[in-house]
Amino acid sequence: MPHGYVCLTFDFDALSVWVDRGQLSATPRSRGEFGAVAVPRLLDLLSRRGLPATWFVPGHTARTYPDLCRRIRDLGHEIALHGYAHENVAALDEDAERAVLDRSVEALREAAGVEPVGFRAPAWDLSENTVALLNERGLRYDSSLMGHDYAPYRCRIGDRVDAESARWGEETPLVEVPVSWTLDDLPHLEFLSSPTRTLPGLGDAERMFGDWELDLRYMLRETEQGVLTVTCHPQVIGRGHRLLRLEEWLDRITAYGVEFATVGTVAGLAAGGAQLGRPKAAPAE
Ligand SMILES: [Zn+2]
Description:
Elements: E1 4-11, H1 16-21, H2 26-49, E2 54-57, H3 59-64, H4 66-74, E3 78-81, H5 94-112, E4 118-119, H6 130-136, E5 141-142, E6 153-157, E7 160-161, E8 166-167, E9 170-176, H7 185-189, E10 192-193, E11 198-199, H8 205-222, E12 223-224, E13 226-232, H9 234-237, H10 240-254, E14 259-260, H11 263-271, E15 278-279
Parallel strand pairs: 1-2, 1-13, 1-14, 2-3, 4-5, 5-9
Antiparallel strand pairs: 6-9, 7-8, 10-11, 12-15
Bound molecules: zinc ion.
Zinc ion (ZN) binds near residues 11, 13, 82, 86 and 122.
GO molecular function, one term: hydrolase activity, acting on carbon-nitrogen (but not peptide) bonds
Protein name: NodB homology domain-containing protein
């Protein structure tokens, strides 16, 4: 039994993220295009190490790059949902969100013949309807929330939070495999600018991977079968200096004896009752 899991996830946003940002002039478009340049590099890097990954693919990307999606599938990786054109679902009403979900499922089915079991919200935010919609579709997991660092948990419906207190709603079958902005390459590394917001990015990839390694070491010391889920974007991580740091990081953490698993695999274990990420029992006095 592995003493911890690492889920490598890649959000293959390609042009969809620029569609969502309304930045469709030539250079933003080309930044999305670079994502497709980076995907084969990442696939080769993973294949050389025999590592599985989960690829969250918007419908827009699946329709633009069906061959790459089939290659991802044929190498045994998981493909999961990531909106159609990278919509912030928290800003959609229920009918619009259901339509986007239907359209994104259809696009993955057409491009790669896959039936996704998981979803990651493009803006890492869910509407009040998302959990019900994902359950209604029979999906196994979401990977957008941040309520734990190492332990998958059940998504709830009906949380009530106001200035007085928080009252939790009912748990549902949908498993949450949690994420964090600290475990996402984009805010660390990518420079983004728009009239309303600048994300400085351009940080030191080695420092980012060093922090991720410390998160992993803490997980292995403190928890039983914890899960560390990291998020990378091909158009961010796909530059030479970052890929070399990624390779070094993967080789270092492989030495800890962790098991690399897809998010779908981990969600399946959690749904089956596995207690992942529990604190280790204190040693007897
Ligand atoms: Zn994305």
